[in-house]
Amino acid sequence: MIxxxxxxxxxxxxxxxxxVISQAGLNAIVLPGGDRVAIGVASAIxxxxxxxxxxxxxxLPEVDHVAHVSRPYKLASREFHSADTVIEHKGVTIGAGEVxxxxxxxxxxxxxxxxxxAKAVKAGGAKVMRGGAFKPRTSPYSFQGxxxxxxxxxxxAARSEGLLTICEVLDEYDVGVCGEIDFLQVGAxxxxxxxxxxxxxxxxxxxxxxxxxxxxxxxxxxxAEYILCQDNPNVILCERGMHPIDRTYTRYTLDVSAxxxxxxxxxLPVFVDPSHAAGDWKYVSALALAGVAAxxxxxxxxxxxxxxxxxxxxxxxxxxxxxxxxxEDVRRxxxxxxxxx
Amino acid sequence: MIxxxxxxxxxxxxxxxxxVISQAGLNAIVLPGGDRVAIGVASAIxxxxxxxxxxxxxxLPEVDHVAHVSRPYKLASREFHSADTVIEHKGVTIGAGEVxxxxxxxxxxxxxxxxxxAKAVKAGGAKVMRGGAFKPRTSPYSFQGxxxxxxxxxxxAARSEGLLTICEVLDEYDVGVCGEIDFLQVGAxxxxxxxxxxxxxxxxxxxxxxxxxxxxxxxxxxxAEYILCQDNPNVILCERGMHPIDRTYTRYTLDVSAxxxxxxxxxLPVFVDPSHAAGDWKYVSALALAGVAAxxxxxxxxxxxxxxxxxxxxxxxxxxxxxxxxxEDVRRxxxxxxxxx
Amino acid sequence: MIxxxxxxxxxxxxxxxxxVISQAGLNAIVLPGGDRVAIGVASAIxxxxxxxxxxxxxxLPEVDHVAHVSRPYKLASREFHSADTVIEHKGVTIGAGEVxxxxxxxxxxxxxxxxxxAKAVKAGGAKVMRGGAFKPRTSPYSFQGxxxxxxxxxxxAARSEGLLTICEVLDEYDVGVCGEIDFLQVGAxxxxxxxxxxxxxxxxxxxxxxxxxxxxxxxxxxxAEYILCQDNPNVILCERGMHPIDRTYTRYTLDVSAxxxxxxxxxLPVFVDPSHAAGDWKYVSALALAGVAAxxxxxxxxxxxxxxxxxxxxxxxxxxxxxxxxxEDVRRxxxxxxxxx
Amino acid sequence: MIxxxxxxxxxxxxxxxxxVISQAGLNAIVLPGGDRVAIGVASAIxxxxxxxxxxxxxxLPEVDHVAHVSRPYKLASREFHSADTVIEHKGVTIGAGEVxxxxxxxxxxxxxxxxxxAKAVKAGGAKVMRGGAFKPRTSPYSFQGxxxxxxxxxxxAARSEGLLTICEVLDEYDVGVCGEIDFLQVGAxxxxxxxxxxxxxxxxxxxxxxxxxxxxxxxxxxxAEYILCQDNPNVILCERGMHPIDRTYTRYTLDVSAxxxxxxxxxLPVFVDPSHAAGDWKYVSALALAGVAAxxxxxxxxxxxxxxxxxxxxxxxxxxxxxxxxxEDVRRxxxxxxxxx
Lengths: 341, 341, 341, 341
Description:
The structure is a homotetramer. The first copy, chain A, is α/β, with parallel strands linked by helices.
């Protein structure tokens, strides 16, 4: 931790800062600069002292700002776990090189829709089928998902094609209902729903954790830390678009740089969701390929047998033939960046 | 609803759009423009048809974009409820002109801290005491609140000064624990936690609903709609800062224009939280006064008897004497903008 | 300057960093931390070495990040010029306590419009009249201003009411044409047009420098530094709204916290432009009063005798009677926050 | 143009709007909706009437909002020029399928640096060499470029390797100095410097137009329109990163969706600048490949023979060997997405 004093700080004000550091059992070093003095903490700061200490020092007179040298997460950090996390779950391997595709409709609607979707998902070589049973919707008047019945339909459709399943959960209750689901998903709006993070952590299932649209990378990794510290090592990070400067043509702005940055800071696999980022099927393939070219370990893509009649997010769903073409392109781009095709 | 076709759209493609509108039992009018044709829906669109119809039409060939003419919320809208909502609850009146202050520490810590805080809150003329018992924290290693015990301490401290209480809740369980709390608070991170919105709606208690840091005004009012449609009319909107362009000196950017905009669009009272917006006590008073000058119905302010030793957000807490001075300034500015002092 | 090494950094990699610092004639101190080492530069870093040195060190192996302890500007900083800058120019005093109003139409259009506007501006107690002669417009098909003829009309209208003038300039040529103009304005789009900043600096005239809609406070003060380092001490900072998260109801988001932050960091007076921030006259007064309550030294407000027929930005212009009412409210709020009325 | 009235609008207020439309010689159609009435303009609106008419109507009583159906640009729009623009200039072809690379150092520094850079640029298969002679720098204390002498060194170095040249210009004067330069560049900070856009338009040279970090796509295309309407058809659009939500690890957020969106809306070729977007060489290659996978027609990349001693933006420059590897990867990814390798 580094504390920058203001140029006006007196000797006594500097001593007040070093005093607080010493009282915490840590070592303070004063760095005389040009216009102002900085003070460094030259010892390991226990994780639970990090924020309180910074906040206490921030409040002292003539402290200009406090900056952290170390990162706030540990279990999610590559500094303490240098090898890539590889998730092996029921025959699907994530994070070992191959670009893995999760696909399916935004929402579960009918057995027929799910059967058709499962065929398309399978045909494109996807390994895991998605389908929302609990839908967080901006308006209370929008379709909120089929609930438990939806979970059932998803599991049935996926099994008949030999696919695994992923389902978004909104609270602890949903986690219980999703007993037969293989992967749990935490949506972007819930990235900082800490009760939910704890619940999915305790489930022991692999979790796909979407990044919130205005979350920093550090905040995202701290949310992963909530899951990891429940002794659940199987977290997949998923970038799905940042709050956009321009909402006219796309719903969010895919932060494609989050892929190499997260892979550098963390050992966890990183996916990209091009469907929610784009919000318009016409741009989904370009974003999916961009994600793969940037190094993503996988994609989660919305596919619907009949997007025009989807009950949710139809405009961003790919038709089966477009998805097939994308899946082929993904293999080619994956090969071009040195991944197994 | 207005549908803009692309300049390339053929007669048949235009007919496809009007066909979908007619099939929904609605009236379509074709507006020949210069380069392109627009199509208007000239009937009332039922609320539950609004999104699905827009999405279905978006997917048709050569549809450039779909725009809504009406707003997506109804109960929260001033168009359907023109008089200001006045919340009268246990002797406190909100939305009737007077600028009401809610104040207290970020987190409940000890009986002594709460007793001292309650005295300061009372001295400043605040009517409702805040105190966090369930803290949503970015890091799993930060203090997460005292839980049920915290609720108890808050109620005790407030009662001994004749104050009402407000407490943030994170899920349905917390709502149950907060039986003796007078006002419930939904935090910014939970603005789109729809399960929670439904739970606080059902509680029947007045709810202070913070705006998410990247939420639009329409999204905020739709979240209010989730509470209102549980037959709970007592929602207080609270602006607490948008995701900032510049995080160097403040944590968020208070969107002070949200006050007059929300008051114009909605009949609900609007508060401002200058403490979370600033993140630094030095700027809290300026933001509080700005909010009042812009027409806010109230403030929620963090006050701590000893900010340097607060377990949470100490840097943004006002000391009692600073809060007293602010409360006096608030009365003067309120008077200057025509509110009872 | 503080350099945080990654946790993997070796002794040799640390020595490479301290070596570069020593070579620059500066003192390096190694701060052993918990997981990682930090290195502090314990000497004054010359201004022209600050960026090159940081960039050079950033490129060395296992350097995690480089943070500055000192601020990048000097002339604009309150640390080196603690007293408020007071601009006295042709009988108008800015920065001495009184809230000074600049007002007038977005664009100069006709002698009649300017005469009517000047009367309204004068009636509201404004001291300086604005009027755009050179308009930066998003579209090449929009009205680009009357140019030299517009400057003439502005000067004539203002003089007949005993007002001073301010005019936005777009390049060095315009500065030349504005010989009779009293204050020059640099618009938000030009905040980082360094050729223009140098030109207005050399003019010797007081300059109102608007903050760009995505500029940090430090970038804004660095732009002021460009003017100040031309030996022109008379810079007025002007906040006019940040790029918004929600563009639906306002054009920008006024960052009202920029007022107390800029006044704390800098000695320069700070104005607020509520008209461009709002983009809608209905919200202009609320933002103006918020700015004054937050401590602004002045306002620049758009006023037009007939907004419905304005050639530019009519929707955000106040009619004369609304402006008069606002001016009265400004005086009351100014009094409430301890400024001379 | 569509005008949405508020739900409170009276017949007379609706008539006021249709009256203004008729007076402008245009056709108004009233669309009765559910809660509120909309009014459509059913005729071609002349380009110079578009904004004034919208602004005039916005100011009328009980007008809720005004939305445009047509786009504000014409020459840049694919609706009026459906074939891709192919720029053929001195033997280099842009926009015809091949991914074209522009590369070179941020700033021109010395003849030796430029000679080494030119060799690296050539070796990577780039066709055009960049090198800044006029540098817009945030701080007045940073290196501002070598000016005319820098132009000379760039031309000499490029010629000796048979490369064309591109140089950023800041105002009309620089355009004059760049007589021997082949392509002109307008930087992100200058995207809305309309005097400069007009000057580069008049130069007749192909122009690479960077998108401003908070510019919408429509604003970007309107800036292109400023150049195109000077009878200069050779504009290359260049995405270089949006103002970021998280500045910790990258300087900007590359909006990779801008590539397919701009290519759909416009016929102009679209480049990506991964160097400024990342601000850190470690992430440049991932962003470059993402851009190509998303359909970019070319890249502009910073390459420096000795980044550690660069006078400007060293941390984002690629060393020659990294650039060579990237150029090879670009060819492979280009092939994977169906472009000639």
